[in-house]
Design a protein that fits this description.
- The complex is a heterodimer.
- Chain A is an alpha+beta fold.
- Chain A contains four helices and eight strands; from the N terminus they run ββααββββββαα.
- Chain A has a single domain, classed as START domain (Alpha-D-Glucose-1,6-Bisphosphate, Chain A, domain 4).
- An eight-stranded antiparallel sheet of chain A has the order 1-2-8-7-6-5-4-3.
- The two termini of chain A are 32 Å apart.
- Chain B has two domains: 76 residues, Arc Repressor Mutant, subunit A (Orthogonal Bundle); 39 residues.
- Chain B has a three-stranded antiparallel sheet with strand order 1-3-2.
- In chain B, 36% of the residues are buried.
- The chains are: A alpha+beta, B mainly alpha.
- At the A-B interface, β1, β2, α1, α2 and α3 of A face α2, α3, α6 and α7 of B.
Chain lengths: 178, 121
């Protein structure tokens, strides 16, 4: 299965999948070509998080990135989108930190109870399967997050706008992203 | 139906650019509400709230219905049809992030290798 040669970088990106698993859950999965300790490190050191959390290819620019990754520690990510002047802040608290295998945090930027994000890192043969699970407090909260971004449908032919809208979703979201 | 998809994009942006209107959308995501209730929740006059709801309605984000003297607001119907599109956009955001993360992972792997070699020397 894993017939990749040595440490040659793979030209093909590993696929990212998203699924609404239930009324209250969103799940994102992705495999990384590296051990869990390294992927985990990239999620837990602010100077590394800063480099990938606001991808330029998505029109995002990181303004500040603070993350005190330990139980009870807080994070605060501030970034902006090229087409949206107002910076957006996403913040919350880490409630579970298990080195190299599991991170759980709250999302407190929205009003009302936000979703809880759980990320697990599972290593197999030098690669890491990452599963990110967002649990919303209610079906209504997830519906609202999606509804406030419903306009993205209008911009189906305008990819850029879609991207902007998802960013707005976050800003608006009664509960969650980054 | 058609009026939602043809609503001008500018209208949506204008509608979403205001914190009160975003709050109203969140509120309606939890439950339908009358203009009076919304005005109270957001500490505004009825006239002020009517204006905000009007902007949201024009953008197709909210629909309203008047029964007797009460005008009830709810989220626009387009939302359910758009769930798939939203999830796909969400996927693309994470795919972009993870592609950048690949670069960081490759770099850390290289660094670990170099450090490992140094230690062995």
């Amino acid at each position: 299965m894993d017939a990749r040669r040595g440490s040659e970088p793979t030209p093909m990106k590993n696929p990212t999948t998203t699924e609404r698993k239930s009324d209250r859950e969103l799940v994102v999965t992705r495999t990384f070509n590296g051990p869990a300790r390294i992927v985990f490190e990239a999620w837990t050191r602010p100077e590394l998080l800063e480099r990938w959390w606001a991808p330029k290819s998505f029109g995002l620019t990181m303004i500040s990135c603070e993350a005190d990754v330990r139980v009870g520690g807080t994070y605060r990510f501030v970034f902006r989108h090229d087409a949206f002047p107002e910076p957006m802040a996403f913040f919350g608290r880490y409630i579970e930190v298990t080195p190299h295998s599991r991170l759980v945090w709250t999302n407190e930027e929205g009003e009302g109870g936000g979703q809880i994000t759980t990320v697990t890192f599972e290593e197999k043969g030098g690669r890491t399967l990452l599963v990110m699970h967002d649990l919303y407090p209610s079906k209504e909260a997830l519906d609202a997050a999606i509804a406030s971004g419903s306009t993205s449908g209008m911009g189906e032919t305008f990819e850029q706008l879609d991207e902007l809208l998802i960013t707005l979703d976050w800003a608006i979201s009664a509960s969650r992203l980054p | 139906m058609v009026q939602y998809t043809s609503a001008p994009i500018d209208a949506s942006f204008a509608a979403l650019s205001d914190a009160t209107r975003r709050g109203v959308l969140e509120q309606l995501g939890r439950a339908d509400a009358s203009i009076t209730v919304l005005a109270e929740k957001f500490h505004m006059t009825l006239t002020g709230m009517k204006k905000h709801v009007g902007v949201l309605e024009q953008a197709g984000l909210v629909t309203t219905e008047k029964v007797g003297r009460v005008r009830t607001c709810r989220l626009g119907r387009c939302r359910l049809e758009k769930e798939t599109a939203w999830i796909e956009t969400y996927r693309r955001l994470w795919a972009s992030r993870f592609d950048e993360l690949d670069t960081v992972v490759e770099e850390l792997k290289r660094k670990e290798k170099v450090d490992g070699r140094k230690k062995r020397k």
